[in-house]
Write a structure and sequence with these properties.
The chain has a domain of 62 residues: 2-Layer Sandwich (Histidine-containing Protein, Chain: A). Helices cover 42% and strands 14% of the residues.
Length: 118
């Protein structure tokens, strides 16, 4: 009886150890599963274009002529920026009129205001 018991116990121990043996591909699969999280994609660079090609070459003259017609001789226009920038001085109560005249002369497009009210 002791012999049968030892034989069954030995076979159970061998079967148990064989069943607990790890698979050689376990670590490889775990590494493959995590490899996708380490990939960092960089954005595609966007080519910059100059917007001066889309602006009217006579824009500065149009806006300055409209401002001078209304009596704003101290206001200058810079078209190297987008949108066009107004600089100079004007009376405090006429600042809105300067912006209105410049916007209308610009075809309804906005202009940047850097005019100082005095």
């Amino acid at each position: 009886m002791k012999l049968k018991f030892l034989a069954v116990l030995s076979l159970a121990a061998v079967a148990g150890l064989a069943g607990c043996k790890g698979d050689a591909n376990t670590n490889v699969n775990a590494n493959k599963a995590n490899s996708n999280t380490a990939v960092v994609l960089s954005p595609t660079p966007v080519a910059k274009t100059t917007e001066s090609a889309t602006t009217d070459p006579n824009l500065k003259g149009k806006i300055e002529a409209a401002l001078k017609a209304k009596g704003f001789n101290d206001v200058t226009v810079d078209v190297t920026t987008t949108p066009a920038t107004l600089r100079g001085t004007c009376p405090k109560d006429k600042l809105t009129e300067v912006m209105q005249v410049a916007t209308e002369a610009n075809g309804g497009k906005p202009v940047k205001n850097e005019v100082t009210a005095k």
